[in-house]
Amino acid sequence: MSKVPETPSPLLDHIKRRIALSGPISIADFMNEALAHPEYGYYRKQDPFGRAGDFITAPEVSQMFGELIGLWAAVSWQQMGCPPKIDLIELGPGRGTLMTDALRAVRNVPGFGDALTVRFVETSPVLRTHQQTAIMASGIPATWHEAFDDIPVRADVPAIIIGNEFFDALPIRQFERGDHGWSERLVGVDADSGELGFVRGRETPVTDALIPATLRGSAKKGDIFESCAPAIAIADQVARRLNETHGAALFIDYGHPSSAFGDTLQALKGHEYHPVLRDPGDADLTAHVDFAAIARAMNEAGARTGAVLTQGTFLRMLGIEQRAELLKTGADEQQAVAIDQALARLVDADQMGTLFKVLIGYGRETTPPPCVSGVAG
Prior knowledge:
5-stranded antiparallel β-sheet
């Protein structure tokens, strides 16, 4: 039986043509093409969430996650003195599940719903449709923005900013330590197979400026350092917004609390790990978040940050175990088991509880929000 030829990928062909014309491209450029190409990009053309997608995020695991974040936002607002207007901003809101659960949880907090304007930062047309459907039932006004910097600054309106699994999808660059310096890891085309592959650029001592001073002395040949310029830029923008509006921010993502060496770039397709350079546009690409770099950027912009917490610690501080017990009241046995399983998935150390980290930021003149442990900046 003859083999049926695979359908050529327009995006893969586009990337190969780009490399043929101008040489190997950075991993950041590859990620931008794979995730955000206006026609073929992963986030532009499909809904990646849920069991039918490629991965499941914490809001999809249980309503408890979004509910507790909603209560965190409401208490933050109360600690600000209950201002009459507030922008509740979510970066990369997925299907709108987190915000829907959050708004339901705070509907009985006096004055909070009336003060709210919900703002979503979302580039995917497919996901915007889901978000519009999800938010409609809340009755709270919402607007959509292509980028965080597109949201108007209103000095008398504090901003509460939430980002769950937002930074991990931003494009990174990788640098590998050689005999005499660092060289950027690039994406090229293998001359023999014609397939995409990783190649190294020229070694240069200039790249040392990108490596945190705490790591330079311990670097050895073969070490890889990842840098995410878009994440640093957004952290800077968020910090300045927090200072201008006396606001607060909550970021939850998988990553490491301190800057470290390592190759964390990965692809997911159908809930399974997938070769990173295969099927661009049809698999999700992510990398672990360097929370120390995010906090450092926010502190340098004048904002304050708390110590990095694990997701399990954060959710327990907010009372997720008590919320689970309340949900089980009146539930049948099967529902109770499902609630316990969801709780374990969110907080246990061998599941999402330790891998996912939490960073809280706030303006220099803002009262520290709930769950701030230690202060930097």
